[in-house]
Design brief:
17% of the residues lie in helices and 65% in strands. The chain is of the alpha+beta class. The N terminus is likely disordered.
Length: 193
């Protein structure tokens, strides 16, 4: 009878040790998941920026306000692909218009895993349609925009970042007209691991 009690105690002890090991492994796996870097593979950034730009050309000044929600998914550590929608309101010497665009982007972050500021570069293409209204008439223009940007995503919480972006836009219109602009933007980013 003593051997059965001892053997039952051994089985119970082994079972408790197994549960303890399973619990410790679960905690380590959860901790590793929560400790995932914000630029690791399979991380997604959902966010957007708001921007202001002013462009002068041939004596005229155009001012625009832009809102740009975007999604970026990391396909490898520090490498992301995504897309964005752009909406702008433009005014030029009393005339106005709006722009709506959509397109893909590709980027590379320089996260070394140690800081809360994540610098990255990105480039992409947007197809835009501009609706312009002048004194007596209204017309629309389709055009392409290529952009290059340098940005900083400053992580303020585990899943939230403040985004500061400087970008250079190269725009070309139907009929061969083109112009370039420099845009500063600020926004927020949700970080989903």
């Amino acid at each position: 009878m003593t051997s059965l009690i001892q053997s039952g105690g051994y089985i119970q002890n082994s079972f408790m040790k197994g549960i303890g090991i399973l619990l410790v492994l679960s905690i380590l796996i959860i901790d590793t998941t929560l400790a995932q870097e914000p630029t690791d593979k399979r991380t997604t950034w959902i966010g957007g920026t708001a921007g202001f730009s002013s462009v002068s050309s041939e004596g005229a000044t155009a001012t625009s306000i832009t809102l740009s929600p975007s999604v970026s998914h990391f396909v490898a550590n520090n490498i992301f692909v995504g897309g964005a929608v752009n909406w702008s309101r433009v005014s030029e010497n009393g005339n106005g218009g709006s722009s709506l665009g959509i397109g893909p982007h590709l980027g590379l972050s320089f996260n070394n895993g140690g800081g809360s500021s994540i610098p990255y570069v990105a480039g992409g293409l947007r197809y835009l349609q501009i609706e312009l209204t002048k004194a007596d008439f209204h017309y629309s223009i389709d055009h392409a925009l290529i952009f290059l940007s340098q940005s900083f995503n400053m992580v303020v919480r585990e899943s939230l970042g403040i985004l500061i972006e400087a970008s250079y836009h190269i725009q070309s219109f139907e009929g061969g007209a083109s112009f370039n602009s420099f845009v500063l933007s600020i926004g927020v980013t949700g970080i989903l691991n």
